[in-house]
Specification:
Helix content: 55-70%
Structural class: mainly alpha
Radius of gyration: 17 Å
Order of helices and strands: HHHHHHH
Number of strands: 0
CATH topology: Ferritin
CATH architecture: Up-down Bundle
CATH class: Mainly Alpha
Number of helices: 7
Distance between the termini: 32 Å
CATH superfamily: Ferritin, core subunit, four-helix bundle
Length: 205
């Protein structure tokens, strides 16, 4: 499979995410709750599980390697988890990760994936970046599909932000790979789609 080289420089992400998402949460709570389709309900709950997996992974690997970059990625995920929680609460949906500790999931597939990614990420700091890249690639595919299935503008707005967030995280993690002059083989995205993200500037989100 084709590999991505890591020789070009990247830019720092833009600030303002927390305030932006706080405004989105206010808009969600001010909107009128409407019935959701079965796909929309499943998607919201799955994305909530997925973002918790990403947050937990970043936090655990940050402890392992003392990485401020991973701490920041985990903090961003927490903000989006709060936004997804607002959506679930607003629409009366159960939270699949309520009261779950870091590293715990109510879904065996997510639990197994978490364990696998932590194992990979503990091998080296480069491998920690690779584990994060795998999560963000998977997220981009799932978010795009969920975005296409929703009819609710407030849900679509959150998914759009999450897509920008995942693309930014892909860029940040790839930038971490540059420190080690490593290579990465995209797993969920095509090589052209992956490079179209990582070689562009971060997006405001």
């Amino acid at each position: 499979m084709a590999k991505v080289s890591t020789t070009r420089s990247q830019h720092q992400p833009r600030p303002g995410r927390d305030a932006h998402l706080a405004r989105i949460r206010e808009q969600i709570m001010a909107s009128r709750a409407q019935p959701l389709g079965a796909d929309e309900q499943r998607d919201l709950q799955r994305i909530r599980q997925q973002r918790k997996l990403a947050r937990d992974l970043y936090w655990e690997l940050a402890k392992r390697w003392g990485s401020l970059a991973l701490v920041r990625l985990g903090a961003a995920e927490q903000t989006y988890l709060d936004t997804l929680d607002t959506l679930l609460d607003h629409d009366g949906l159960s939270d699949p990760v309520a009261r779950r500790a870091v590293g715990e999931s109510g879904d065996p597939k997510f639990q197994a994936l978490h364990a696998q990614l932590v194992e990979v990420g503990h091998r080296s700091e480069m491998a920690a970046s690779q584990a994060g890249l795998l999560v963000e690639e998977m997220s981009l595919s799932d978010l795009a599909a969920a975005r296409a299935r929703t009819r609710r503008p407030e849900i679509a707005a959150v998914y759009d932000d999450l897509l920008r967030n995942s693309r930014n995280h892909l860029r940040a993690l790839f930038r971490q790979m540059q420190r080690f002059e490593g290579e990465y083989v995209p797993q969920s995205l095509s090589l052209s789609d992956f490079e179209a993200i990582v070689w562009t500037q971060p997006e405001p989100c």
